[in-house]
C-alpha cells in the first residue's frame, strides 16, 4: 500500500499547472491587447502560410493554434473573444481581385481594410539570407511598433496610426528592460504611392570596441584547438575569424545598463543591428468602416461603389464556405442514417 501511495504522489506532482496570461500590464497598468488571426472564405496555400506567420508575429498575446472551421461565422469568434479578453481581429480573405487584410477592433469596430499587392512569407525571407537568425525565446515578448510617414496625411492615416499602436502592448521608456526588446515591427507610409511597407525585424546587440574575431570567439561554444599555436594572440590573428571591418555607426549606439549577453557588459556601449525575419508585406488602405466589418464607410479609396462590390465579394466567399459546411453536415447525417 505504501508503494502505491508513493506512485500516486509522483503522478500528482507531474501534472502541469496551466497559468492564464495576465490581462493588465503590472508596470504601465494598461490593458494588454490580444488578437485573433483567422481567415474568411477559401485561401490558397501561400495565404494560409501567411496567416500562420501573422499568428507567430503577434505572439505571445494571440491564439497560435486557433482552430477555425468553415461553418464558423464572425459572431462565433466574437462570442469567444469577450471572455478571453481579445481586443483585435486580423482577417485574411481572397476576393477575385487582390488578397485583403482587415484589422478590426472588437467588439464595435472600427475596421480597416487593406489590399495586399505584394507579400513574402517568413520562409522566403529566411531563404534569401545567407545566415538567417531566429534564436530561441525570440517570440516570448511582444514586438515594438514603429510608424513612419503617417503624420502627413488626413484623418484616415491618424486612425490607422491609432489602430496599429493599440494592437501591441504599450511600453514605459523609464522601466522597460532592453532584454525584452527583441523584435520590431516597422510600418512606413509612402505618400506618393499611398502604399505601406510592412516589415518585421529581430533586434541584435553587438558590443562596440571589440573586434569581430574576439566577439565570435566568445560566442562560440566549442573548445578551440590550440595544439599548433604557441600563444593565444596567434589564434586570434590566424584562426580565420573574419575581417576586422565593423559596420557599426555612431547613430545606432546605445549605452547598456544590464547584461544582455556574454559580450555585452554594463556599462559598455553596443550597436543595434536589425535582421529581417518576415513576413514582408505591401499594404494599401482602401476602406475604413465604423463597425466590426460593417457599418458606415468612413473612408474609401476607390469610391462607394467599389467598396460595396468588395463587400459583396466577401459575402459571397463566406456564403460559399457556409454552403460547403452544410453539405458536409448533410452527408454526415445521411451516412449515419444508412
From TrEMBL:
A Pfam family hit: Brix
Brix domain sequence ranges: 33-294
Residues annotated as transmembrane: none
InterPro entries listed in its UniProt record: Brix, PPAN-like
Molecular function, one GO term: rRNA binding
Coiled-coil features, chain-numbered ranges: none
Top-level taxon of the source organism: Eukaryota
Biased composition (Basic and acidic residues): 312-328
Cellular component per GO, a single term: preribosome, large subunit precursor
Region ranges (Disordered): 300-338
Acidic residues composition bias: residue spans: 329-338
GO biological process terms, semicolon-separated: ribosomal large subunit assembly; rRNA processing
Protein name: Peter Pan-like protein
Provenance organism: Apostasia shenzhenica
Gene: PPAN
Amino acid at each position: 500500500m505504501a508503494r502505491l501511495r508513493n506512485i500516486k504522489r509522483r503522478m500528482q506532482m507531474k501534472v502541469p499547472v496551466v497559468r492564464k496570461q495576465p490581462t493588465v500590464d503590472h508596470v504601465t497598468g494598461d490593458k494588454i491587447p490580444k488578437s485573433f488571426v483567422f481567415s474568411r472564405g477559401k485561401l490558397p496555400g501561400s495565404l494560409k502560410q501567411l496567416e500562420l506567420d501573422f499568428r507567430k508575429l503577434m505572439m505571445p498575446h494571440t491564439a497560435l493554434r486557433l482552430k477555425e472551421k468553415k461553418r464558423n461565422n464572425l459572431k462565433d469568434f466574437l462570442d469567444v473573444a469577450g471572455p478571453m479578453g481579445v481586443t483585435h481581429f486580423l482577417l485574411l480573405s481572397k476576393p477575385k481581385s487582390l488578397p485583403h487584410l482587415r484589422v478590426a477592433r472588437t467588439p464595435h469596430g472600427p475596421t480597416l481594410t487593406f489590399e495586399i499587392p505584394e507579400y513574402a512569407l517568413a520562409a522566403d525571407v529566411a531563404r534569401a539570407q545567407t545566415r538567417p537568425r531566429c534564436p530561441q525565446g525570440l517570440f516570448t515578448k511582444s514586438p515594438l511598433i514603429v510608424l513612419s510617414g503617417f503624420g502627413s496625411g488626413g484623418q484616415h492615416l491618424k486612425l490607422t496610426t491609432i489602430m496599429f499602436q493599440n494592437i501591441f502592448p504599450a511600453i514605459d521608456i523609464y522601466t522597460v528592460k532592453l532584454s525584452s526588446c527583441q523584435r520590431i515591427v516597422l510600418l512606413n507610409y509612402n505618400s506618393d504611392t499611398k502604399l505601406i511597407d510592412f516589415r518585421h525585424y529581430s533586434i541584435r546587440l553587438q558590443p562596440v570596441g571589440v573586434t569581430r574575431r574576439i566577439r565570435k570567439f566568445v560566442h562560440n561554444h566549442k573548445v578551440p584547438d590550440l595544439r599548433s599555436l604557441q600563444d593565444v594572440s596567434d589564434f586570434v590573428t590566424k584562426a580565420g575569424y573574419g575581417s576586422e571591418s565593423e559596420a557599426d555607426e555612431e547613430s545606432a549606439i546605445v549605452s547598456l545598463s544590464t547584461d544582455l549577453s556574454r559580450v555585452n557588459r554594463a556599462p559598455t556601449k553596443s550597436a543595434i543591428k536589425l535582421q529581417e525575419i518576415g513576413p514582408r508585406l505591401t499594404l494599401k488602405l482602401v476602406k475604413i468602416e465604423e463597425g466590426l466589418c460593417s457599418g458606415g464607410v468612413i473612408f474609401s479609396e476607390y469610391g462607394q461603389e467599389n467598396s460595396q462590390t468588395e463587400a459583396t465579394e466577401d459575402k459571397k466567399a463566406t456564403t460559399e464556405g457556409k454552403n460547403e459546411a452544410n453539405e458536409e453536415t448533410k452527408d454526415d447525417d445521411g451516412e449515419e442514417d444508412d
